[in-house]
Amino acid sequence: MATYAEMREIYEDITRDFRYEHELNGCLNCGICTATCPSAHFYDYSPREIVQLLWTENVEQVYDAMQEKIWACAQCMTCAARCPFKNSPGGLVAIMREVAIKHGMQSAKDVLRPFGRVMLKLITTGNQLSPDMIQPDHFPDWGPNIQKVEGDLKTLRKAIPVKTLQTTDTAWETSLKTSVEMYTIWEDTGVLRQLETMDENLFDVIQDFIEEKREEYDEWLEERQAAKAD
Amino acid sequence: MSTTEPKGIAGHGAFFQPTNLAPEDAERATAWVRKHVDRRQLDLGERMDDVRDHMWELERDGEIIVHRISDDHQPVVVKTLFGWDKRIPTAQLWHHKSCGQCGNIPGYPTSLLWTMNELGMVPGKDYLDETDQTSCTAWNYHGSGIGNVESLAAVFLRNFHQAYVSGAKLGHRPGHFFPLVHCATSFGNYKEIRKYLIERPELRERVKKILGKLGRLVDGKLVIPEEVVHYSEWVHVMRNAIASKLQKIDVSKLRVTVHMACHYNKMVHEDAIYDPEVLGGHRAATGTGVAQALGAQVIDYSTWYDCCGFGFRHIISEREFTRSFTIDRKIKVAREEANADLMLGIDTGCVTTMDKNQWIGRAHAQQYSVPIMADIQFAALACGADPFKIVQLQWHSSPCEEVVEKMGLSWAESKQRFEEYLQAVKAGRIEYLYDPRLADSMSRAA
Amino acid sequence: MSDAILIVGGGPTGLSAAHAVASIGRRAVLVEKEQLLGGAPILSGYAKLVPSGEWAKDAIGRMVKRVEDSTLATVHRGCKVAGVEGDHGRFVATLSNGASVEAGAIILATGFTHFDAVNKPEWGFGTFEDVVTTTQVEQMVAAGKIACPSDGRTPERVAILLCVGSRDRQIGREWCSKICCTVSTNLAIEIRELSPATDVYIYYMDIRTFGLYEDKFYWRSQEEFRTKFVKARIAEVTMGPDKRLLVKGEDTLVKRPIVIPFDLVVHAIGMDPNELNPEIARVFGVELEKHGFLEKGEHYTSSFASTRRGIYVGGSALGPEDIDTCISHGLAMAMRAVGDLNALGERKAA
Fold first, then answer.
1. Which domain holds residue A27?
2. Residues B132-151: tens digit of each pLDDT
């Protein structure tokens, strides 16, 4: 349970984000955002409510909403397209999610745990999904027809007539240089730090992987220099 | 006009009749229609801001370099929501691939490249697909909140810088290849990021340092593309060429529903194609345009505007939501209300969601099924592409074999041919749509 | 110096100004671009005006007749002012029919343009026949029958969507069009009078039946006519399998998303600046304010002044306005025009 001061700090973190004043101009309480929100039709969730809580500086209920409610949003941005005030409740939710992660909220960790596989793939390869993740036993509720031709994944992927797609562990083949550039971006923009807050074990795995790849790249560079010198 | 035409009832009927009006009267009789249609372009005066105006200002001030769409890119002009112009390059394109497409729906990008080849575009000159591309990372960001505006912006600029310089290794000038974004989420995300970059000098400064570290500046400046272009916009402006030059199969008996991707037309919604020739300009045009150009019957349905329920995170870890939403608001409606033979999407997430979440309906006594594929997969099929080798429909869970058969193709034969091809693949005899060496970014990198 | 006053626009504002000028003993020259006088209430076929309940053609018709019968008023129909030269005290206006008009002062009563609902396509106008505007319902009331355009049936359920083209940053129209709440509640009453079996729902963000209109329209439409009000701005209008329109919103007071079928959907369209305002600004050398309406002076001591001396602006040319107030503006501008000319004459004589 957080103190009021902590909740206030979290609230202010949200309002300090440079996108906040763009995305919350005021509210006419017209409900068009909730009208059009897919999550509002399914969950006990209402973008209008989120906006109202933020706008009226309801620090405690904003903190509450950051436990589960903000994770209901499907980020479709229909709210932003319809709002007569040109607010973006979906955009505000994205800010709130970042802040929840920054503060290491347990609810964020719980919510993100199943996403670990995707994040590992993304941070290490720059790709998000890979063919070897979409196998019948990984997502059984997608049914047995996930692949209508018998065969091993490798061959089936080689049967795609596009060179970059003939991979199994990434969606497309990314060059080593590309991956290494990504690591600099993750580091310098604080994303790796975010990840450390969320899941230390995952972070360690990723750090090892990054080091390995960087070494590989440095070696490749050396070889090239050597080849040029000859 | 033939005088042997049937005269209908009391001279009225569905045939043209000369009005014999004097020119001024004719003009007056029809001027109100033109006036009405013209007013679809709202007078917004200074009350609406086009971020591209500021982009050009920034370039004039020496802050950024704009990757231009030149005549070499053979651009076609379209109108967006408020009647603004947008230029869609149709040649010399750099393929910005989609994770979900390449991972799950490989027939999606393959159909696009195949169609480009069929239109006579030359790989290495008219398009490039290479390994030096990262995911836009927006799926992750919107799903998990891991990431921030800076990381998204750095990724945007890194990829688009690569697009800008990618032609060098093939002897082309900078800016030869213009980026074509395959995924609607990438598209929406990049439009948003572009806006932040143009409006916030602090963001530009921070990101510039990172790009500088990567050696990804040109003359010390950030490179920003003149337009952010989605592949479905390319398909849209090429739809008549595809239909007239390439189409081999008559699809006029097919009932098709179109699902519009939220991230195409709701994220930065002023930048999406609204075409008076498609749906009266009342709804975003891509997807529908090509289906109509191919001659299919496009059927409207009551939940056209609804999201598919992909949700980014939801499809992986809130699966009840995704499948309830997609079955209830999309699949069931397409099946029962529209009686569709096929549902088309223009985005990775939508196609994945709708395709993969039909079977599970049985667990809830909701057994609806509709074949799902992308607009470009459908177009490729109609133009004679092999359902397995090119359109790669074997990865689709929804009953695409049904629509393939309805198009007069034999699923079983195509499957058999493909299985034979698999043997060839195992033996190392692999076919390619473009010379595989073109994909290699590293060996020719400076 | 010319003692005539040129009045541009023959709607309620212009008609009021023309008669007022004549009643003070000055000559009024009225120029109207359409062939008919009366402005929007006549040209768009309004039925009964609010708050009086009088038929538009009777009430405005009386105003037209008064001007036509006046010996001091001249009317030019079917033409516009093409150019203006001169100054306060002596303007020379060239009309598009070739005529030339000398006037000491000019009153701009050029009015507004109805918002074209086709610019909010997600609300169905232009896609579905049974989505209509308040203006079209006025025409139905005038014809004595409420019917669905698609098949002529009497609608069981009618939805009126307020603020179409108003209070909406998405389309650069951040103003309130002032009168649509009153007009819509009035239409709800008229629909129920003509078709007692029809249910009317009004979807609103706020209800602005100001002043004495509150009980006369908002309360009365509920108490006597059972109109239902839902505080919800509608997101989209589509069509269901039974061909009825589906209206999608959030009932913000009950806090639940709703999708409701209706037979007829009515857009309460707003008042846009006159689409000819850029031309008017150019021809008369006056400025527009930020929303696109004509700019006016400070109201305390320079009421109804435009940005050019000797030219006055009022009525819905200034912004959304109700008819009664427009008529008052006409009277006020006549007084300003004549008063200023008198003062100018005295200064010149001195």
1. 4-103
2. 999 999 988 888 888 999 99
Residue B408 falls inside a structural domain: yes
Evaluate if residue C210 carries a pLDDT over 90. Answer: yes
ipTM: 0.92
**What is the 8-class DSSP label of residue B10?**
T
**B167 in the same domain as B281:** no
- CB-nearest to A41 from C205, C236, C257 is C257
- Residue B405 near chain C (CB below 8 Å): no
Same domain flag for A13 and A92: yes
Question: Residue C85's beta-bridge partner residues?
Answer: C92
By Cβ distance, the residue of B42, B301, B303 closest to C119 is B42
- Give the domain extent around B260: 248-425
Give a yes or no: residue B397 inside a domain: yes
Q: Touching check for C230 and chain A: CB below 8 Å?
A: no
- For residue C292, the chain B residues in CB contact (below 8 A) are 43, 45
A96 lies in the same domain as A186: no
Q: Determine the residue of chain A that is closest to C260 in CA distance.
A: A35
Q: How many domains does chain B have?
A: 2
> Per the structure block, which two tokens stand in for B395?
């990865």
Global pTM reads 0.90
Between the CA of residue A178 and those of A153, B101, B132, what are the distances in Å?
A: 25, 19, 5
Are B199 and B83 part of one and the same domain?
yes
Task: Spell out which residues of chain B touch residue C174, defining contact as CB-CB under 8 Å.
Answer: 47
- In chain B, residues 108-147 whose CB comes closer than 8 Å to chain A: 109-110, 113-114, 129-135, 137, 139-147
Dihedral, CA of residue C248, residue C251, residue C255 and residue C257, to nearest 10: -10
Q: Tell me the nearest-neighbour CA distance from C292 into chain A, angstroms.
A: 19
Helices (H), chain C: 12-23, 40-43, 56-69, 134-143, 180-194, 213, 220-223, 277-284, 323-349
* Per-residue pLDDT tens over the stretch B408-420: 999 999 999 999 9
Residue B184 in any domain: the answer is yes
